[in-house]
Amino acid sequence: MGIVKLAMSTMPIQGMSTTYSTHSIITDSAAAGTALATGNKTASGVIAMDPTGTVSYETIAQKAHKKGMKVGIVSSVSIEHATPASFYAHRPSRKDYYELALQLPESGFEYFAGGGFNKPKGKKGDQPDVVEIIKGAGYTFVEDMEGFRKLSPADGKVVAVNPVLKGGKSLPYEIDRRDDSISLAEFTAKGVELLDNPDGFFMMVEGGKIDWACHANDAVSSIRDTIAFDQAVQVALDFYNAHPDETLVVVTGDHETGGLSIGFAGTKYDTFFQKLDGQTVSYEDFDLLISSYRKSTDGKGSMEEFFPQVESAFGLKMEELSQSDVAELKRAFSESMKGKDDRSKDQESFLLYGGYEPFSMALTHLLNRQAGISWTSYAHTGVPVPVSAAGVAQDSFNGYYDNTDIYHKMASAMGL
Q1: Per the annotation, does 83 bind a ligand?
Q2: Are residues 363 and 252 part of one domain?
Q3: What pLDDT digit, counting tens, does each position of 294-330 carry?
Q4: Is residue 18 located within the same domain as residue 119?
Q5: Residue 380 annotated as lining a ligand binding site
Q6: Is residue 321 part of a domain?
Q7: Would you please indicate which residues are annotated as catalytic (active-site) residues?
Q8: Of these four, 13, 74, 76, 253, which has the most CB atoms within 10 Å of its CB?
Q9: By three-state DSSP, how is residue 230 classified?
Q10: Is 211 annotated among the ligand-binding residues?
Q11: Which PANTHER family does the record associate with it (predicted)?
Q12: How far apart, in whole angstroms, are the C-alpha atoms of residue 56 and residue 47?
């Protein structure tokens, strides 16, 4: 894995943003999304409303739409997940997936794309199908590659769902993506094509699976999805370069996840990033291999028998591991061979595996350490996040400020 110059790192303005919510130094995506979308702090779990969940905040996307601009919302996770929902919906709880999805057609926004819907028929599966409601509201709904590629402005309002959906109705991790799956950059480019008009457009594009990979402490999957997101950024910058006097591109994170750091006690001042080249699948797809092996052996398989799949997926060789590494992996493998209800649930197990598949976690942690990478959490952290900007009013994004200020800077540039 060579060093890649990210497009977002070449943008002329670089700033930093704080991300805390009303109740915590460490925010969640709902509160952070609300801050970016509305300029208001709120409590974790709340979507574009005040901390009590009783007062709605108008979003920058809604204001832009009122002004006559077209609006697009794109994400590599489900389209009613916390961050995308914060731009078009209002709910006291981010877990109200069905109710959030119902607000998608009510928004009238012209383009929604990426992941699918977590609860298309409600929590109990007994509600009207949200996809049919979306179609009934006049949206063109596509979920196949050919249909997506044929989309044109003549199709009107569009909801485009990736043909391949993984856990949480998300896009596959970039490391796992095959030719039958649409990239985040392709979704972004299609958005530019469909939204471009004389009155302008606003598009929010989220690389949500970067966050998910960091929750699972999977450095390689995070890196690959970051590069995929950066390719979407390049699409935006290409549009900016063609229309420099009327375009603003802003890139930021809603929070940091996992406490990722370059540096590990065992590698001291050295890094060995070339070791990351050995990983060929995400933890998510490797979990499926473990599950299949567990079922085929009735939970009585051996790590030695399974290890060829480890070598293929992570580039790790048993004979090159230390005794302590092998012991750590065997412990995790033993846990993975148990049914979920039979696994250890004590504090030590959570610190080791974070509630994820134990053997996958042990392997990614081992590979990360060998490369000189470490993590502090399976959750978010409170550290500031970078902000990059290019275009109209770009200088206002210089410096150090709060995430609510990003909304105000964008709104000012857009004349809202």
Answers
A1: yes
A2: no
A3: 999 999 999 999 999 999 999 999 999 999 999 999 9
A4: yes
A5: yes
A6: yes
A7: 29
A8: 76
A9: helix
A10: yes
A11: ALKALINE PHOSPHATASE
A12: 9
Q: Domain containing 195 — which CATH number?
A: 3.40.720.10
271 vs 260: CA distance, rounded Å: 14
- Please write the tens of the pLDDT for every residue from 216-235: 999 999 999 999 999 999 99
- For residues 264 and 275, what is the distance between their CA atoms, to the nearest angstrom? 14
Kindly state whether residues 226 and 357 are assigned to the same domain.
no
Distance CA 16, CA 403 (A): 9
Tell me: do 245 and 282 sit in the same domain: no
* Helix (H), strand (E) counts: the chain: 15, 13
Beta-bridged to residue 380, according to DSSP, are 257
User: Would you say residue 196 lies in a domain?
Assistant: yes
Say if residue 212 is in the same domain as residue 274: no
Supply 292's token pair: 């299949």
Rounded Cα gap, residues 253 and 210, in angstroms: 10
23 is in an annotated binding site: no
Give how far Cα 242 sits from Cα of 232, 234, 239, 366, Å. Answer: 16, 12, 5, 45
Residue 189, pLDDT above cutoff 90: yes
Q: Are residues 269 and 199 in the same domain?
A: no
Rounded CA gap, 311 and 87, in Å? 43
Residue 357 assigned ligand-binding role: no
